Input
Amino acid sequence: MKKFIHDKRVKVSDKDAARRAAMTRAARPFLASTVVITRGPKGAEEVLLGFRSRKHDFMPEVYVYPGGRVDRADSFAPYHGEIDPRTARILGAALPPARVRACVLAGIRETFEETGLIIGKTATSPRNMNHPGWDNFHAAGYLPSIDRLSVFGRATTPPYRPKRFDTWFFHTHLTDAEAQQPVSDSVELLDIQWAPLKTAHELKMHVITESMISELRKYLAASSPPASVPFSRWHRGGFKYDGFPIGK
Output
């Protein structure tokens, strides 16, 4: 699995190059969570994607999965279920338990904020979070189901970018009933759509988004979840693509 990738499609805008040149050191990556959601029968799955407008300073004008930065409130949000042991072990090799849970919860919250789709169980929240995303989620009558997400990838933004993220990629598959939930555009994502997993890479995407579609296909085809996940990161002048945790 270990190999180096340098993709010439990865470009840095003049604006980003100028911002990075003004910095004395590489930006520290923010912890982030992305959820790749599928629906439909095995072999004919569809994946949920949305288009980021040009106003965004990170990955504008491309199709992405719902997700974003982990907020402080994600560490305190009430939830249902427990993270599956494999996912907890993999993230736990990089993060303390509270951050592992916050990362999973952030993916569920961001999915709701950006698409309106709820990954949760009917229940009443025991507290007011004073956070628009979580309070709206709870007002809909749900608690987030953290047992529904399984990790299948990780990617860190390279140091030549002025804004960086350490992003964990999770997968969940909707039941037929859940798949009937309406989804809608938001301030963050436009043209929300279900795209065939087999051809989703034909949409305009950043290289890592396209790469994770390929990794998801492998993940879904495996007889059992692998002990490690693919990890894309910058190392000594190029993209290194190997497994995490290392040695698993």
Notes: Residues 97-115 form the longest helix (19 residues). The chain has one domain: 30-223. The helical segments are 14-21, 85-92, 97-115, 132-139, 207-221.
